[in-house]
Amino acid sequence: MAVAVSTEFDFAAYLESARGQVELALEAALGPERPESLREAMRYSLLGGGKRLRPILCLAACELAGGEVALALPTAVALEMIHTMSLIHDDLPAMDNDDLRRGRPTNHKVYGEAQAILAGDALLTRAFEMVALRSPGVPAERLLQVVGELSLSAGAPGLVGGQVVDLESEGKDVDLDTLEYIHLHKTGALLQACVLTGAMIAGASEPLLQGLRTYSRGIGLAFQIIDDILDLTASSEVLGKTAGKDLTADKTTYPKLLGLEESRQRAEALVAEAKAALQPWQANAQPLLALADYITSRDR
Ligand code: GRG
Fold first, then answer.
1. Pocket of ligand 1 contains residue 153 by CB under 6 Å
2. Distance (Å, rounded) from C-alpha 270 to C-alpha 221?
3. What is the arithmetic mean of pLDDT over 49-65?
4. What would the 3-class secondary structure string for 213-275 be?
């Protein structure tokens, strides 16, 4: 059953305020440091736009679980760092080989492949530093939980595993189960880590963590279905990345297997399921409920 989002909740204002906090925290996370060339390559991708959906999900989950949002900011930054690293590496010639990201040339086009790989590596390791060494006020056992969750989402059980199966599937006929595996790992795992870590910082109960697992599975798959649809229907200008890549790379996508209309319906059903999972916590769930809707209504 779908959960209605309160009409009094001003989502646009919420997004603007959360994005503002995230941008400031991202800027502060990369201070003056050496080598300068590496710092520049890290800053170029980390501070170069993006919807900031992942850190905002983390902050919203912390709030839902009754935590102080400021305590989740370092972890929110860490999540955006891991995401940015994955975009830099995904764009490399050995992977998706793209030259446009967030409306600008990709990292390796500007700094070269070696520096792009190292900037990604530095962002990934800085992410763990943010949690372990730069999260004052959060009890150590919660930080340990967060480190565990981030490791699972970024490594072989998450992003890396999904990316490997994705690369191995190019040019092949892929069934719906394999496509779902790719998306749940390549995209869904990190989105899941966003809401779980935010809630862990607040000391969430196991039933709430379970509700958030169901929520994030739904929004993760829906997010990727919409990504597949936008790759077909939106322009590179609006997306800020090369449109039509899935066809060029002969990738299996939801629209290819189900058609555009059924894909859209599936994304909407997944978002409805995601929202229903938060029903017991509905009173404090407006941001997460509205973020779920945003995933299907977004145009980039
Ligand atoms: C080295 C640990 C490690 C992992 C790298 C390269 C890789 C493994 C995985 C690729 C993961 C990837 C790029 C998935 C695509 C996810 C996706 C849909 C990204 C677009 O996200 P948006 O739309 O982008 O939120 P913005 O720019 O708005 O942040």
1. no
2. 7
3. 97
4. HHHHHHHHHHHHHHHHHHHHHCCHHHHCCCCCHHHHCCCCCHHHHHCHHHHHHHHHHHHHHHH
Q: In this model, does residue 1 exceed pLDDT 60?
A: no
As a whole number, the mean pLDDT across the chain is: 95
Peptide bond into 35 cis (omega under 30): yes
Pocket flag, ligand 1, residue 213 (CB < 6 Å): no
Candidate of 26, 44, 80, 83 to mutate for ligand 1, largest count of ligand atoms within 8 Å of Cβ: 83
Architecture in CATH for domain 11-297: Orthogonal Bundle (1.10)
Q: Which residue has the higher pLDDT, 2 or 162?
A: 162
Structure tokens, 170: 């190019």
Please give the structure tokens belonging to residue 287: 């941001």
What DSSP letter does each residue of 181-207 carry, written as one string? Answer: HHHIIIIIHHHHHHHHHHHHHTT--HH
The CA R_g of the chain, rounded to the nearest whole Å, is 18
Distance of alpha carbon 265 from alpha carbon 97, whole angstroms: 31
Query: Ligand 1 centroid to 48 CA: how many Å?
Result: 15
Checking if the pLDDT of 141 tops 50, the result is yes
Domains of the chain, residue spans: 11-297
pTM summary value:
0.96
Q: Which two tokens stand for residue 121?
A: 């590596």
Q: Exposed e or buried b for every residue in 167-203, given b needs 16+ CB within 10 A?
A: eebeeeebeeebbebbbbbbbbbbbbbbbbbbbbbbb
Distance CA 221, CA 161 (A): 16
